[in-house]
Amino acid sequence: xxxxxxxxxxxxxxxxxxxxxxxxxxxxxxxxxxxxxxxxxxxxxxxxxxxxxxxxxxxxxxxxxxxxxxxxxxxxxxxxxxxxxxxxxxxxxxxxxxxxxxxxxxxxxxxxxxxxxxxxxxxxxxxxxxxxxxxxxxxxxxxxxxxxxxxxxxxxxxxxxxxxxxxxxxxxxxxxxxxxxxxxxxxxxxxxxxxxxxxxxxxxxxxxxxxxxxxxxxxxxxxxxxxxxxxxxxxxxxxxxxxxxxxxxxxxxxxxxxxxxxxxxxxxxxxxxxxxxxxxxxx
Length: 283
What we know:
Distance between the termini: 50 Å
Strand content: 25-35%
Mean pLDDT: 88
Number of helices: 8
Number of domains: 1
Number of strands: 17
Shape: globular
Helix content: 10-25%
Radius of gyration: 18 Å
Order of helices and strands: HHHHEEEEHHEEEHHEEEEEEEEEE
Largest sheet: 9 strands, antiparallel
């Protein structure tokens, strides 16, 4: 079933379908699907910022903000917080430039970031953390530590689903799908925050420029951000327009993860997931 499923997924015009769904999600007609969506995914409406009736279409609801008190951000200076709501897919140490996608399925830092071996070496023996966001989750992305955004890379690609179907049947999934990568100089040293596009994700957006994913005939590009906008821990930095995945990469000896952060752990934006060891890094 695995090879057949992968073939079927590959043959689908994933990007075109995703753009079409994105347009449909922003149509006025989609407003009538908000309540069924809430019911099907059992979304807690008590924590959302506005009344359900205030959202003009499904995408607006999907990218909803939360009430400020719904996600308290851990205030401790050495706390590493979760940037999103979701479930830990994988976490661990980067060894010989390799990260884990699933059991017996690996990929490399260089493939993920689209960078040279020398650039990938920066994260050798560091920590990686992969968090999957399901369709029911809150889909805004926040800074896990204080930092200055210094660089961005956009890598066009496919849009395989990033749920278990894709993770277990598409080797190198996160190196094949579109990515929008934010590099930051933080209180924990250099950090890469990889936002992975997925099937029917309308787009991934960031708050520090007009950068987005799933554009027709998109080409890879990398840009330095000389103004290096500063983001405080917990500040919103971007969003997904449908379920997807975030991957964090940290340098060696910069952070440690809490013992409970392992495959299958549910996390909420703002909660402590680790400790910043390199708190003397200047930003």
